[in-house]
């Protein structure tokens, strides 16, 4: 039995909690008018940089460090076609770029720009044998080198893998970050959604042309709907008085909501040849007049994957190391998510110093 005193205590505790939460909500509401000002101060990239090459809509940035260049081989970062690339230079203390620049690497990044309907017919061949090849050639010419280091993130990693297989002679070391290679696995909702039994990619692309940013954004949100649509807003509300939390949140949300469209033909080829037919692991992926043969990759390869990645599960990345001919290959699995692998606090302190050392040892 519950005594009357216990019941009275419960009521009083509830009343106290209600009053405290009411006052907390009043303080949170008072912080709302300042959010817009804070959001306006969010910078899209923090490391100083300069544009050194342009072609169509893309730009190649060279990052400017405070110290001298210590390594002879330049590093070129290839990002995905889906989002903006400044996630790799998000803010101070959360920058992949800064790790390499501070270590003395001459660091470059390909910014694809924002495609419009005039780009809908761009193919994987245009990106791999066209844009990426031209950018790498330019960087090598600028630096007086014959080979460059390449770091590819997500879809950019898949493109970088294809590029290396087709142009191994100009790539010295390959670093892959959360990169999809083997799509035979049924892990991950995107793999299920893209199944040809449920998704007619030809009809889709023929109808929309470029794949709209809004479509991609909603797909990413639905990977974890409860976390993205309920837990995250509640967490933000509860921490709205925490300046550091708010600053991190605004930087991340600015990037997450800065989606861009994907050229229709590239999307068609990735959906059909990777997600539906898994041709890359079979050495049958067509890129223009060429076929990608992963066995032609012989350079050192570092394959980084996040154990909690809901977008590119480790099962999609790990098989690569057994499909290439590289004798110097390594896998690092890090406890993080798809984005946390790049900008997470633990990744910045533990993972990226190790990656920088790995690359420096192979300069």
TrEMBL record:
Matching InterPro entries: AB_hydrolase_1, AB_hydrolase_fold, PHA/PHB_synthase, PHA_synth_III_C
Q: This protein's superkingdom?
A: Bacteria
Please name the pathway: Biopolymer metabolism; poly-(R)-3-hydroxybutanoate biosynthesis
Give GO BP annotations, semicolon-separated.
poly-hydroxybutyrate biosynthetic process
Q: Does the keyword Transferase apply?
A: yes
Pfam families hit by this protein: Abhydrolase_1
Q: Which GO terms describe its molecular function?
A: acyltransferase activity
- Cite the entry's keywords alphabetically: Acyltransferase, PHB biosynthesis, Transferase
Domain (AB hydrolase-1) ranges: 96-341
The record's NCBIfam families line, in alphabetical order, gives: PHA_synth_III_C
Question: What name has this protein been given in UniProt?
Answer: Poly(3-hydroxyalkanoate) polymerase subunit PhaC
Organism of origin: Pelagicoccus mobilis
């Amino acid at each position: 039995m519950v005594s009357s005193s216990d019941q009275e205590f419960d009521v009083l505790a509830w009343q106290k909690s209600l009053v405290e939460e009411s006052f907390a909500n009043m303080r949170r509401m008072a912080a709302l008018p300042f959010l817009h000002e804070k959001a306006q101060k969010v910078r899209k990239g923090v490391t100083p940089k300069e544009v050194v090459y342009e072609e169509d809509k893309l730009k190649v940035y060279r990052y400017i460090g405070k110290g001298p260049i210590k390594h002879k081989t330049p590093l070129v970062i290839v990002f995905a076609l889906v989002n903006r690339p400044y996630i790799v230079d998000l803010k101070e203390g959360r920058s992949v770029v800064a790790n390499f620049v501070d270590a003395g690497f001459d660091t470059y990044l390909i910014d694809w720009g924002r495609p419009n309907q005039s780009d809908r017919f761009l193919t994987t061949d245009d990106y791999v044998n066209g844009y990426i090849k031209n950018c790498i050639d330019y960087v090598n010419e600028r630096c007086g080198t014959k080979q460059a280091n390449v770091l590819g993130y997500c879809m950019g990693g898949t493109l970088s893998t294809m590029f290396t297989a087709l142009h191994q002679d100009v790539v010295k070391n390959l670093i892959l970050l959360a990169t999809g290679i083997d799509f035979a696995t049924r892990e991950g909702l995107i793999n299920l959604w893209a199944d040809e039994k449920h998704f007619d990619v030809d009809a889709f692309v023929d109808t929309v042309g470029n794949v709209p940013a809004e479509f991609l954004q909603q797909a990413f949100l639905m990977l974890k709907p409860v976390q993205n649509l309920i837990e995250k807003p509640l967490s933000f509300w509860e921490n709205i008085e925490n300046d550091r939390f708010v600053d991190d949140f605004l930087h991340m949300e600015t990037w997450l909501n800065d989606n861009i469209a994907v050229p229709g033909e590239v999307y068609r080829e990735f959906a059909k040849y990777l997600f539906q037919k898994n041709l890359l692991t079979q050495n049958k992926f067509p890129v223009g007049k060429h076929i990608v043969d992963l066995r032609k990759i012989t350079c050192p390869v570092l394959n980084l994957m996040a154990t909690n990645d809901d977008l590119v599960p480790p099962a999609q990345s790990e098989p690569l190391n057994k499909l290439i001919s590289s004798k110097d290959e390594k896998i690092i699995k890090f406890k993080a998510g798809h984005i946390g692998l790049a900008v997470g606090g633990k990744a910045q302190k533990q993972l990226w110093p190790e990656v920088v050392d790995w690359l420096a040892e192979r300069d």
